[in-house]
Amino acid sequence: MSQLVTGAGAVASVGEGVDEVFRALCAGTSGLGELRGFDRERYRTRHAYEIDDRPAPGTDLPGRATDWLLRAVGEAAAQAGLGEDLSEVPVLVGTGLRELRSAELAWRDGTPFDIARLHFGTALRRRFGAVRTHTFSGACSASLYALALAADLLTTGAEDTVVVAGVDTLTESMYGLLDRVNSEPPDRVRPFDRDRRGVLMGDGAAAVVLRREEPGAEPRALGRVRAVSMNCDANHVTAPDPRGIARAVHEAQWRAGVKPGDIDLVLLHGTGTQLNDAAEAAAIAEVFGREVSGPLMTAIKCMTGHTSGGSGLLSLIVALESLASGRVPPTLGLAEPLPGAEAFRFVREEAREDGDLRVAQIDAFGFGGVNAVAIVERADR
Amino acid sequence: MTQGPGEVVVTGVGLAVPGASTPGALLRRTACQVTGPAPEPFDTGARIGRRGHRYKDRATRLALCAALDALRNAELVPSDGEEVTVPGDTVGVVASSNLGNLDTACLTAAAIAERSAMDLSPMSLPNASSNVIASWVAIRHGLRGPNLMLCNGATSGLDAVHWAAVLVAAGRVRRAVVIGVETHNAVVADLLGRSAGELLDGAAALVVEGARWAAARGARAVAALGPYERGAGLGGCVAALLPDGAAPGVWFTPERYAGGPAGAVPVPGGVPVPGGVPRYDVSVAVGRASGALGVLQCVAAVGWLARAGAGAGTGAGVDPEAGAGSTAFEAGAGAGAAPDPVPASRQALLTSGDDTEDAVAGLLLRPTPDRCDPYPARAPLISMECSR
């Protein structure tokens, strides 16, 4: 059974609102900038994809992630006709780092912060009256995991409408530890490039409204979610396992009732790290086999940075926009694909117009080996 | 309200808390406050060994201990091993913790401010991500099903049990291990504004399983999951779970619930749980438990169900230690519109979060159906489960 996406919202370094974000990505606009919120002298890495909403460089505020989440949910709910009252609607939020940035500021600098706002239920209740709220800390696949759980609630008949969201901001702890483990600090995210140097974090939030599709009814919809898989490598706490990723991709296609040859577009997870991109390439090559040169492929983290828990849902919204418009944003900075991905049909340098895109796959993988893959299709079929 | 998937049962429980190693012991500690010196902190090394400690924070170690206990109790891992004896992709993990990795985040941020990122230990990297607890449980036992980490405030533990049931009911997995864990340290104590001694340093775990899958492998169920609710306010939440003021056999209250002692007249506009129902606050026994509370409540409720079951046929569900029984309210339970095979008086009501929180979660735990098994074991499934 399929579900309709009846509303979407997005906030990212490249823009505010789904239309602006999608236009920016298709124009090849990057949100890359010099590190704004942290003391640059403390890191070798000096760049990130931040939302520029702090009062002054080098200063930081608590609660920024919460603000973006509320804006993204508000946009999605409005578009779906739900308005501002979500008292009867479950809201599932996938995040990697919650409001841990606010906790860092509170503990280290004494910045006032209510610990009850570490999860997002408190703010969602205040703004939308929402009480059936759930904050999942699922690393970088969290929002697609939340989408899978929402799909299950609709499939089992427990609900007919669910809001799904994802959000993250840079924490100093995660940014610093990534800086520590990178052999050479990256100056931008170059997904699937032979010379990629690693990941840079990005700010952002994304949200969708998911509704059960009723036979006969034809509500206006942005697209249809066919299936979402979720699993765990159970192998390594940070390194990805191509076998687990391949299982997730295969299961998503199986649940959706599609074959690799049916996929027209793949939004890759594509973090630009050595290990992640190699593992994803191996898994995609294995599952797609001879069809691997069929679908267009792209990875938006080259322009948004790694928006962590929100990244899967942001990619999904971009995929739906691409299916609807026929325009696919490019993978910037991809000069020469890594070994094993030479046959992939990457969209490079500039957006590609391709009128007849029907089915898309969206990948999201995270620390702890948590993998989720979604299959979506254009609404008008 | 989400109707409980009647076919989801509890087949294993585990604890890693000071001073209580079984559901019965946890219930006793909750019912009768122990005086004297505080018990020693839980020794994680004694259960998971030094190898199990490597690079893991305290919350993760505690979670591993409780998970191992529950998986062994459910007979999903052998007494001398760690890998599950069923296919790993039939088992999910749902962990709950609000405070687990706060210390890594805050201490790392402070270390960067004092020196630089280059002085950090790269071994802290996994702990910077809040889902590290659920990941390590999966890695240690080879659990390849969905792997969830709930950080959902005061209700997080009961929410985690709910999501495990959703995973089972939706057919994502046949069973899932649910872990609730919190620990205390200087960072947590400072951010909460409480002394470390008031706070839990421990973990609890459950195995929830589809009844048919439990039956297929011959596993014994110790409780069945009833309906779950997350809503605004304690009163509304309880009313949704127990319509018409039906009295549960026992009430596991929110942490430090101030609604009055057992036997008191309910406060006006207060909670619709009759005053005669025994009330237990698990956090009194183990410390303020935050995201672990709901799972601890489930384990204690399993202890209550076992004791009530032992006395079944007489005062079903009445707790002998707590004095006032609940039989007087059974008429109210029977008057409910929905025919429920298990009278309210034999069910345990669990609630987390109070009216000062963003929401309150509630769950009913019930005795399992009588021994006559409605799910006959099917041979092909058994062989499939064992084909690993």
UniProtKB/TrEMBL annotation, chain A:
Matching SMART domains: PKS_KS
GO molecular function, one term: 3-oxoacyl-[acyl-carrier-protein] synthase activity
Keyword flag Transport: no
SUPFAM superfamilies in the cross-refs: Thiolase-like (SSF53901)
Keywords: Transferase
UniProt KW Acetylation keyword: no
Record-level GO BP terms: fatty acid biosynthetic process
Family affiliation: Belongs to the thiolase-like superfamily. Beta-ketoacyl-ACP synthases family.
Protein name: 3-oxoacyl-ACP synthase
Organism: Streptomyces antioxidans
Automatic annotation (TrEMBL), chain B:
Stretches with biased composition (Low complexity): 329-338
Keyword Chloroplast listed: no
GO MF annotations, alphabetized: 3-oxoacyl-[acyl-carrier-protein] synthase activity
GO biological process: fatty acid biosynthetic process
Location of the region described as Disordered in the Swiss-Prot/TrEMBL record: 329-355
Residue ranges of domain Beta-ketoacyl synthase-like N-terminal in the record: 47-184
InterPro entries to which the protein is assigned, alphabetical: Beta-ketoacyl_synthase, Ketoacyl_synth_N, Thiolase-like
Protein name: Beta-ketoacyl synthase
